[in-house]
Amino acid sequence: MALRDIIGNAQAIKMLKRACATNMVAHAYAFCGPMQVGKQTAALQFAKALNCLIQASDEDGADSCDTCESCRRIDLGTSLDVQLIAPTQSHGYGDEARGFSIRIDEMRRMRSDAMLSARHSRFKVYIVDNAELATEEAANCILKTLEEPSPNVVIILVTANPTALPRTVISRCQVVRFRLVPVKEIAEALVRMKGINENEAMLYARLSYGRPGLAFAYANSEEAIGAVKKAFGLLNEIMNAQLIDAIRLPEQIIGLGAELSALLPTGGAEFVEVERRQAIRGIDMLLECARDALAIAFGMHPYETTAQLINEMPASEVATHKPQRLARLIDTFMEARKYLLLNANVQLALETALLQFIGFGS
């Protein structure tokens, strides 16, 4: 794989290829954008292009050959000059006790290693994945490293939430923005790369909501579609629930999230404890289902949504749900998701959200 093979975000890829061709490489980059749109993949392919021994050129700039010794080392994860730093589970106190985080000792090791010469490459590249999970001390260490850049060292911060990083850190990086990829573009890539038919590719692309990584995960998992069907069924159950159901429905939401987490990549959500991760994943899928139901209720053609494609929620049934209630459910789940991210009790947060929604409807 190379930069030219990345799906979507042509402007961002062109910028990186041009930097390789002109040798005008910044000492730090911030790859910002939604989860699973290819930020980490682009960072690794950019590292390959920078260190490729036989760069391939085209009208957009330079790219990796994907066959030389340097490219193979990076692909295998054995290159000493390209390091991927990801959050790890913490067991300390204060900021260091936030579950998964990027800690100060990891950033100190990076800073010390960056002062040494490259072993066998032109550039030493450090990719900090989910950089927004850096503790305050780690972020300050990143800042100090950026303020005193070493020659031929490139630091890439990959983040879905750049506002969680200090402004002083982002201001010292060249920001590369990644966006959601058009459904048609993802579907075409699935047909080309996976050899599946167009209807199936369009289904997976629409289910991914612009995230190529998620679309390919759907394509690789037959059980994933079953989980999505279950989500549409659970949405109907919630829309027709009574107050007493608010006690048992949280378990079903968590169960849905557990099933999805086992089948599909979770982006940055894997850095949260298991039950909380599953609850967030279940809510996210229900929000996507509710969005489709609301779109159909407002007049969107059913075939433009995932609901009709999997024959689980026909337009006639969606029409029975009032748009105001669907919008209320989306608001309620968005609020519950926020509290879950703030470390609220999982069961209590879900029960309270459901009680508020069902009680409001009655």
Descriptive overview:
- By secondary structure, the chain is of the alpha/beta class.
- It is built from 16 helices and 9 strands.
- The chain folds into 2 domains: 3-177, Rossmann fold (3-Layer(aba) Sandwich); 221-361, Zinc Finger, Delta Prime, domain 3, CATH 1.20.272.10.
- It has helices at 10-22, 39-51, 69-76, 104-114, 136-147, 167-170, 183-194, 198-208, 212-219, 222-239, 249-263, 274-297, 306-309, 315-318, 323-341, 346-361; strands at residues 28-32, 56-58, 61-63, 82-85, 88-89, 100-101, 124-128, 153-159, 174-177.
- The strands form 3 sheets. It has a 5-stranded parallel sheet with strand order 4-7-8-1-9, with helices on both faces.
- Strand 2 and strand 3 form a beta hairpin.
- Helix 7 crosses helix 8 (198-208).
- It is globular.
The number of helical elements comes to 16
Oligomer state equals single chain
Question: How much helix is in the residues?
Answer: 40-55%
**Strand proportion:** 5-15%
CATH class wording of the largest domain: Alpha Beta
Brief sketch in words of this structure:
Helices cover 53% and strands 10% of the residues. With 362 residues, the chain is of the alpha/beta class.
Main attributes of the structure:
single chain, 362 residues, two-stranded antiparallel ribbon, Zinc Finger, Delta Prime, domain 3
Tell me the layout of helices and strands.
Blueprint: H1 10-22, E1 28-32, H2 39-51, E2 56-58, E3 61-63, H3 69-76, E4 82-85, E5 88-89, E6 100-101, H4 104-114, E7 124-128, H5 136-147, E8 153-159, H6 167-170, E9 174-177, H7 183-194, H8 198-208, H9 212-219, H10 222-239, H11 249-263, H12 274-297, H13 306-309, H14 315-318, H15 323-341, H16 346-361
Parallel strand pairs: 1-8, 1-9, 4-7, 7-8
Antiparallel strand pairs: 2-3, 5-6
Helix pairs in contact: 1-2, 2-3, 4-5, 7-8, 8-9, 10-11, 10-12, 11-12, 12-15, 15-16
